[in-house]
């Protein structure tokens, strides 16, 4: 455990400012002051904009021929929350990576909104460090919403789909 240094407070404030000005979600730094004396700091923030990013594809799924219908906000479904990650039936990303809704470009998607899925069925793929990781359905049900676009980056715990 590090001893308190007056400069540490200013250092941590500078890290928080870097986080904000560069639109970062997390910084981690370790400073060694000498033998058995160091400072290990992790500064992170929750970005509310991510929720908006994941909600946007659901609006894009509305028919293009009816712009008035797309502009109207859908009525909340019973049990649905503002945060898709907290919605009952939310399938979240188990890792940081890139989400792919189909096996390869030009092939049909694994699932579409309205499809009935079985437990263990592949919903999508998350590529992490050049490895394609199949994301299985945690339970059977109907795909109500797909919250990511094909090729979109995802973070750990980010909502991907809602299955009810």
From TrEMBL:
Alphabetic keyword roster: Biotin, Fatty acid biosynthesis, Fatty acid metabolism, Lipid biosynthesis, Lipid metabolism
Function, as annotated: This protein is a component of the acetyl coenzyme A carboxylase complex; first, biotin carboxylase catalyzes the carboxylation of the carrier protein and then the transcarboxylase transfers the carboxyl group to form malonyl-CoA.
GO cellular component, one term: acetyl-CoA carboxylase complex
InterPro entries: AcCoA_biotinCC, Biotin_BS, Biotin_Carboxyl_Carrier/Decarb, Biotin_lipoyl, Single_hybrid_motif
PANTHER family in UniProt: OXALOACETATE DECARBOXYLASE ALPHA CHAIN
Keyword Lipid biosynthesis: yes
Pathway named in the protein's UniProt entry: Lipid metabolism; fatty acid biosynthesis
Position of the signal peptide: none
Superkingdom classification of source: Bacteria
Segments of this protein annotated with the region Disordered: 67-92
Ranges for domain Lipoyl-binding: 88-164
Lipid metabolism found in the keyword field: yes
Amino acid composition bias (Low complexity), ranges on this chain: 67-78
Name of this protein: Biotin carboxyl carrier protein of acetyl-CoA carboxylase
């Amino acid at each position: 455990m590090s001893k308190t240094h007056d400069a540490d407070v200013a250092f941590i404030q500078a890290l928080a400012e870097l986080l904000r000005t560069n639109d970062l979600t997390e910084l981690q730094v370790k400073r060694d002051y000498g033998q058995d004396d160091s400072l290990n700091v992790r500064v992170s923030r929750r970005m509310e904009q991510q929720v908006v990013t994941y909600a946007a594809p659901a609006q894009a799924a509305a028919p293009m021929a009816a712009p008035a219908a797309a502009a109207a906000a859908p009525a909340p479904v019973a049990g649905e929350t503002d945060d898709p990650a907290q919605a009952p039936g939310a399938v979240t990303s188990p890792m940081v990576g890139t989400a792919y809704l189909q096996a390869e470009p030009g092939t049909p998607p694994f699932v579409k909104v309205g499809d009935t899925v079985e437990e263990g069925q592949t919903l999508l793929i998350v590529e992490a460090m050049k490895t394609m990781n199949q994301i299985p359905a945690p339970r059977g049900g109907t795909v109500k919403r797909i919250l990511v676009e094909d090729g979109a980056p995802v973070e750990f715990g980010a909502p991907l789909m809602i299955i009810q």
